[in-house]
Amino acid sequence: MKSIFSFLFFLSVSTISYAQTFTLEELQKKFKPENYSEKVLLEFQKSIEHLEEKPDLYEYIPGEIIAWSFMDGRFLLNSMFLIENDSLKEIEALPKDDAFLTKLNSYVPEKSRFIYRRELWTLPAVKEKLANKSYLIKVSVKSYNPRPYEPSEDILTYNLEYATKDFKNFRLLRLKNANSEKWVKVGKY
Fold first, then answer.
1. Which end of the chain is flanked by fewer CB atoms within 10 Å, N or C?
2. Which domain holds residue 31?
């Protein structure tokens, strides 16, 4: 009886573990195999094996940038990877530096300031590789509200486009209020 229970427990744990990740074959169907070595796909598979369910997968720049995201309750988990020398390098596509934020805030009303808080920024999308070998990234961001349960007309949502070559230094290129069609080009830093 004890051995049957142990076997059933092992089987259920194995099934749960297997169900939460993508197989190599599934990854090869999702991502064109000619763009990715088996080694890269196995590394990518390993990055998602700890998740309870299968995440959403993204191929931003074929053969160069792939990512996954997963909504776990109210938290969005995600990882983005740059493929270099047949290996994955985890990258951050959201800026974190003061110069970027200062530049962004110089284009909005003083009462509508932006800050770096994960819940205010959407998942960034790498849209293309530009001629100068930098990556164009798009994101939406909501201005900070110190009283989130009180509606305020000062809370704005903006769409941003920015570029990076190294995923460490980001340059804001243009922005627009989400309620407008007009993009504003950003001046020199």
1. N
2. 21-91
